[in-house]
Amino acid sequence: MVTIGNHILASRTILAPMAGVTDRPFRQLCKHLGAGMAVSEMITSDTRLWQTRKSQQRLPHQSEPSPRSVQIAGSIPDMMAEAARQNVAMGAEIIDINMGCPAKKVCKRAAGSALLQDEPLVAAILQSVVAAVDVPVTLKIRTGWDPQNRNAVSIARLAEDCGIQALAVHGRTRACRFNGQAEYDTIAAVVAAVNIPVFANGDIRAPHQAREVLDHTGAAAVMIGRAAQGNPWLFREINHYLERGTLAEPPSAQELADTIAAHIRAIHKHYGDYLGTRIARKHVGWYVGSLPSGEIFRKHFNELDNPSQQLKSLNHFLTGQEEWETAA
Ligand SMILES: Cc1cc2nc3c(=O)[nH]c(=O)nc-3n(C[C@H](O)[C@H](O)[C@H](O)COP(=O)(O)O)c2cc1C
Asked: Could you identify the atom of ligand 1 that is nearest to the CA of residue 71?
């Protein structure tokens, strides 16, 4: 059983925060399909920027199922504390701090994983956020800032001392960006060093792999990012494998079609017609990427800019696959 403060997670699989991907519709879908928690896209700690449409759409909402974990990014302790307070007032039940993202925009302001170089600043940020809110605060890190400076264990101990209640570790350094293969030895060392739940993250794509990573690291849960894009059923499949040691049936063609349609409808509703139809293209591209004729369909779908046309065309493709294969 994985607990974060007073929250008991329904499973040992967590959706990783991904800017531009883990918006409210996708988080809700992943939770519905078995993710024990789904962390929001990061929100800047600069509250002056929250009036932008992008930030408005990222802010938490009371209607989202628990536990609502909202990730904040920044490097000034007081601003991080204020951002945490305001998010809790809007419905966040867990505050997650981003020290794992190598994105330029964040790192230029010395936020994200660049902070790992400055342990006193890390401590100041963590202490001020923990003191600011009465909900659990969690932290997401990489294993260090480059392979010669893997200080995840030291950061993890510091985090625990500061009152952080769970820690997600991506098995790469900042310098590694997304290159090479994630390594899990440092994650195992972190698990051994602290008494808070640790979530293992990086390159986990299949049920047996989740089992291996949990066994190797002793982590409380796995955190899945890119492999969930276009495959939210992965949470259910991993949960099934962890509980029973057997592979779950893949989703039927009907379930596939119904789930994707519901997801796309939720995107249209959340973002409105103009933005919604554009954001839908990205997700549909992931969904159909591995299907026969998926590439042909993706190109066709990308030209549609009307919500009902998108849904009609998607339904036609997903329920009339043979027709498309012949057309190809
Ligand atoms: C498109 C994209 C956006 C991301 N945005 C964030 C973010 O906002 N905050 C964060 O902590 N990590 C972010 N990450 C990193 C992921 O949370 C995760 O640590 C990384 O993708 C490794 O896990 P995976 O191999 O399962 O994808 C992002 C990754 C991707 C691919």
From this structure: 9
Q: Which atom of ligand 1 is nearest to the CA of 205?
A: 26
* Domain end marker among 221, 244, 267: 244
How many angstroms does the Cα of residue 175 sit away from the middle of ligand 1?
15
The answer to pTM > 0.90 is yes
Does one domain contain both 103 and 32? Answer: yes
163 and 213, same domain (yes or no): yes
Average pLDDT value over all residues in the chain? 93
213 C-alpha to ligand 1 centroid (Å):
18
Residues 170 and 260 in one domain: no
CA dist 267 and 123 (Å) reads 38
DSSP class per residue in 26-79: HHHHHHHTT-SEEEPPPEES-GGGGGSHHHHHHS--TTSPSPEEEEEE-S-HHH
Ligand 1 centroid to 269 CA: how many Å?
A: 25
Domain count of the chain?
A: 2
